[in-house]
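dumping this here so i dont lose it
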């Protein structure tokens, strides 16, 4: 029975890994329908996607925010992944808090930050965070297979954007997005 339980857990994990690879592949092939996207509305859509998991989390969305040039569906998927990741690693914080800020940057870009008050990680390992199946915490401590932020990187790259992270153990994590502003579309 113990071997069967191990096999079942491994098969379930493999299924999640395949799902992650399929999502990344789909993002790479999906038609890109760029338009001006209202960031606060996109953040609310991402919050709604969290469903009941987002209850009890203090989500501070700074307004106003500039519009970005993005495919609305892909941006919503990226934001939902980033918020879900922030929620996962800040569940133990009392109370869990996620802060979102965006402002116009040079050359028609928009800087978006999503900061949580979660467990954080060794910031010197941040470059590994966006690789497929890369994890910085033990699977026993946090669910997932390490495909969500790789998916976010694929979405950002499709838009000519960049994504990075900074963190410290016990001090939370900040995801940084450098995204094309909507003004660039004209």
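and the seq i came up w/
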């Amino acid at each position: 029975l113990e071997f069967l339980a191990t096999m079942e857990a491994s098969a379930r994990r493999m299924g999640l890994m395949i799902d992650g690879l399929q999502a990344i592949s789909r993002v790479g092939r999906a038609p890109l329908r760029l338009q001006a996207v209202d960031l606060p509305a996109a953040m609310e859509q991402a919050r709604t996607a969290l469903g009941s998991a987002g209850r009890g989390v203090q989500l501070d969305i700074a307004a106003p925010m500039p519009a970005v040039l993005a495919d609305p569906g892909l941006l919503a998927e990226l934001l939902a992944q980033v918020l879900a990741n922030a929620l996962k690693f800040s569940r133990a914080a009392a109370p869990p808090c996620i802060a979102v800020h965006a402002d116009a940057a040079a050359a028609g870009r928009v800087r978006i930050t999503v900061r949580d008050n979660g467990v954080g990680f060794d910031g010197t390992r941040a470059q590994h965070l966006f690789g497929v199946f890369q994890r910085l915490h033990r699977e026993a401590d946090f669910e997932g297979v390490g495909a969500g932020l790789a998916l976010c990187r694929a979405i950002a790259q499709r838009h000519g954007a960049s994504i990075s992270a900074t963190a410290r153990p016990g001090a939370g994590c900040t995801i940084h997005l450098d995204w094309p502003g909507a003004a660039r579309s004209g």
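The beta strands are 35-37, 58-61, 68-70, 97-104, 109-116, 162-167, 173-180.
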